[in-house]
Amino acid sequence: MNRSDCRTTPRHEDSRRNWEVLYHAAMLEDDPVRLIARIEAAEEAILVRTCNLANYPGGRAKEREALIRALNLLSLLRQATKTAIA
């Protein structure tokens, strides 16, 4: 996602709820095949939210930290899933 994509992202609060819902769905998925798709959806939603937060440069530090943690955990989950499937 590049900066021009930020102009077409969902509304501020919609993107907040969206990334949280998709992240939790990925973390709770137990089917390895569906898990990869859920991880991708959650990562995309997190990137959208990150774009939306670009309009609030000084604020929302706790949510920015949560976004970084979520991306890191999703990355670890993706690696573990690919190893388990292989």
Give the % helix: over 70%
- How many strand elements? 0
How many distinct domains? 1
Choose one word for the global shape. elongated
Distance between the termini: 29 Å
Give an account of the 3D structure.
The protein is mostly helical and 86 residues long. It has one domain (10-85). It is 74% helix and 0% strand. The chain contains 3 helices and no strands. The protein is elongated. It starts with 11 loop residues before the first helix and ends with a helix.
Can you describe this structure in just a few lines?
This protein is mainly α and 86 residues long. 74% of the residues lie in helices and 0% in strands.
Secondary structure blueprint with pairings:
Layout: H1 12-28, H2 32-53, H3 61-85
Give structural attributes.
86 residues, 3 helices, mainly alpha, elongated
